[in-house]
Amino acid sequence: MTISIPTTVIIMVLGLIGIGIYALLTTRHLIKVVVALQLLVKGAMLALVLAGRLTGQEDLGQSLAITVIIADTIVAVIGMALAVQVRRVIGTLDLRSLTSLRR
Amino acid sequence: MLHVLIAAATLVCAIQAVRAARLLVSALWLAGASALVALEMYLLGAPEIAVIELSVGAGLVTVLFVFAINLTGEENLDARRMIPRPLAWVLLFGASALLLIFVLPGINQPATGQVYGTFREIFWEDRQLDTLLQILMILAGVLGVLGLLSDQKTDLTPSQKEHRA
Predict the structure, then answer these.
(1) pLDDT tens string A38-52
(2) pTM over 0.95
(3) DSSP annotation of A3
(4) Under 8 Å between Cβ of B38 and B50
(5) How far, in Å, CA of B160 to CA of A90, rounded?
(6) Residue A94: beta bridge partners?
(7) Is the dihedral of CA B52, B55, B12, B86 positive or negative?
(8) Minimal Cα–Cα distance from A48 to chain B, Å?
(9) How deeply is B42 buried, as exposed, middle or buried, from its count of CB atoms within 10 A (0-12, 13-18, 19+)?
């Protein structure tokens, strides 16, 4: 049995998005949250490229994927900067410690 | 066959990136996943995106991760999770089911509509506003890097001092 290329890529996309969502839901570490977001976005990017290929609009898919790459990188940069400053000010990267409402 | 191998390797890298206890190892697994995704994009006929993803996703972001981990240090948190594991699985399956419901019907439909032109035309002419916004986002990223590099000692408020102690 051979699996077609689109099916394989869709499984890959679903896997990446699933792993990303699960990690986002469960992790408490600020840097791990950024790792999870990166995985999620990689899945979305691959889905855009695949959609472009399937509909014959490859250039449109690619130009959207470029936007996603840029946004994703900026999110990683801002997330890292946030993590470094949070660590400096609060002294931990635990997300539970960041809330000041629950005492 | 190659595609299946790449998909399997990517998913293994992704799972390891999430599971790894050490942050540095996690960042390296993420770089591996990124490189494999770039390879898959190349095979799907998107070489430009593959090159950008490889250099930015696997290169720049990994360097940033290592830099940030170096600044913050490894911190081992206890195993308690943000939400209980069964609830996370339920939410995950819900999200996947919704995704499949919306995506699957469209997959086997024939391609319709006109082709919108070449990559350059789409990027620089049709989506000018997006390109401008991307430049603004890059500016925000530069400011973020400045935040990453700033070594300013912050004055702690009394409650923060108490929290730290």
Answers:
(1) 999 999 999 999 888
(2) no
(3) -
(4) yes
(5) 7
(6) A29
(7) negative
(8) 10
(9) middle
Q: Of A29, A24, A48, A47, give the one whose Cα is nearest residue B92.
A: A24
Interchain proximity B30–A35, CB inside 8 Å: yes
Domains of chain A: 5-95 (1.10.287.3510)
Q: Assess A58–B contact: CB distance below 8 Å, yes or no.
A: yes
- Mean per-residue pLDDT, A88-95: 80
- Decide if A90 contacts A53 (C-beta within 8 A): no
- Residue A42 carries which side chain, given as an amino acid letter? K
Alpha carbon B13 to chain centroid, angstroms: 13
The CA angle A62-A6-A76, to the nearest 5 degrees, is 45
| Average pLDDT score over residue span A64-74 | 91
What's the pLDDT tens digit per position in B84-136? 888 888 988 898 888 888 877 766 666 666 777 777 777 787 788 888 888 99
Contacts of A31 in chain B (CB under 8 A): 23, 65, 68-69, 72
Q: Mapping DSSP to helix (H, G, I), strand (E, B) and coil, where does residue B12 land?
A: helix
Residue type for position A48: L
pLDDT above 90 (res A37): yes
For A81, the closest chain B residue by CA position comes to: B148
Give the other-Cβ count within 10 Å of B105's Cβ: 9
- Model confidence pLDDT, tens digit, residues B7-38: 999 999 999 999 888 889 999 999 999 999 99
Cβ burial, residue B129 (10 Å; 0-12/13-18/19+): exposed
pLDDT, greater one: A93 or A45: A45
Distance from CA of B71 to the nearest CA of A (A): 7
- How many CB pairs below 8 A link A and B? 233
